[in-house]
Amino acid sequence: MTLKGFQRRFLRQRAHPLRALVHVGEAGLSNGVFAALDEALLNHELVKVRLHEPEDKKASARELARRSGSELAGLVGHTVILYRRHPDEPRIELPER
User: Fold this and answer.
1) What does each C-alpha distance from 17 to 36, 66, 74, 79, 80 come to in angstroms?
2) pTM higher than the cut 0.85
3) What is the mean pLDDT of each run of 10 residues along the chain (97 residues)?
4) C-alpha Rg value of the chain to the nearest Å
5) Which residues does residue 81 pair with via DSSP β-bridges, in sequence order?
6) What does the alpha-carbon distance between residue 78 and residue 80 come to, in Å, rounded to a whole number?
7) CA 75, CA 57: separation in Å to the nearest integer?
8) Which helix (H) or strand (E) covers residue 32, if one does?
9) Domain residue spans in the chain?
């Protein structure tokens, strides 16, 4: 699934009041980060991930999305917004045009 621009904007708006549920520390993108991210996406569908001083935040955001099977909805500062639809009971209805 590939998100369209207006869908990304919708998800960024929904994510604005949320707090980061996953934090990537100095150790970088470890298996523990991906396990926590997978659980957070399964429980919430829309998740913020806070990066701590990344070397390349765009590459880190793409890697987080790729390895978690999610879509990159946005990158604001050092915060990545990821979306993955729940396989059985989706809670967020994406707008269509």
Assistant:
1) 20, 25, 14, 13, 14
2) yes
3) 93 97 91 95 97 92 96 96 95 93
4) 13
5) 48, 74
6) 7
7) 8
8) helix 31-44
9) 5-83
